[in-house]
Specification:
This protein has 203 residues and is an alpha/beta fold. It has a single domain, classed as Class I glutamine amidotransferase (GATase) domain (Rossmann fold, 3-Layer(aba) Sandwich), CATH 3.40.50. It contains six helices and twelve strands. The strands form two sheets. The chain has a nine-stranded mixed sheet. The chain has a three-stranded mixed sheet with strand order 5-6-9, with no helix packed on it.
């Protein structure tokens, strides 16, 4: 069975992610190693918390180059919540902090007229060409978002007083602003499709 490693960012509820994969019969190994991020068959980058803290942790662990190389090469990778946002150039949450820069865009805060964080279920509407993403109800916990899909990615959008990026897909690279591990049966089915796609590439 291909190796799944989950980056121990220090800003995520790893237990729920590990449990979600274990329910699917998968084994997840936690890591802080750049070598693991480079060499593992499948890599998960979770995140809950601030953009600045997340980037500081990745730099502290020496993971910036390994993640950039992996995603740029199109190798199996799943980013969840902050794990999506960190791939962007910057975030309004942490002015002056440089992100991984793999997505040429800035993360912005929801308008002040909205209740933030967006906490709860909302509808995901994917591009019809998406292979892994499907329409359905998913669970969010976010105050910031990527507003417009970047070029070169298939996208799923969600509406919260206007559309924003709910997820991005490019081959075996999947980035979810929502939490698939908290999205019930829909999230479990999504993880199954991602692991099947990723394992086919990794083998």
């Amino acid at each position: 069975m291909p190796d799944i490693v989950c980056v121990r960012t220090g800003t995520a509820n790893l237990a729920s992610i590990v449990a979600a994969f274990e329910r699917l019969g998968k084994t997840v190994r936690l890591t802080e190693s750049a070598a693991d991020v480079r060499d593992a068959a499948l890599v998960v980058l979770p995140g809950v918390g601030s953009f600045a803290a997340g980037m500081a942790r990745l730099r502290e662990l020496g993971l910036v180059g390994a993640i950039r190389d992996r995603v740029s090469a199109g190798r199996p990778f799943l980013g969840i919540c902050l794990g999506l946002q960190l791939l962007c150039e910057s975030s309004e949450e942490s002015p002056g902090v440089e992100g991984l820069g793999l997505i040429p865009a800035a993360v912005t805060r929801f308008p002040p007229t909205l209740r933030v964080p967006q906490l709860g279920w909302n509808q995901l509407k994917p591009d019809p060409d998406c292979a892994t993403l499907r329409p359905g109800s998913v669970y969010y916990a976010n105050s910031y978002r990527l507003q417009t899909p970047p070029p070169g990615w298939l996208a799923a959008t969600t509406d919260y007083a206007g559309p924003f990026v709910g997820a991005l897909e490019r081959g075996p690279v999947l980035l979810c602003q929502f939490h698939p591990e908290l999205s019930g049966r829909f999230g479990a089915q999504l993880l199954v499709r991602w692991t099947q796609t990723a394992e086919a590439v990794a083998c």
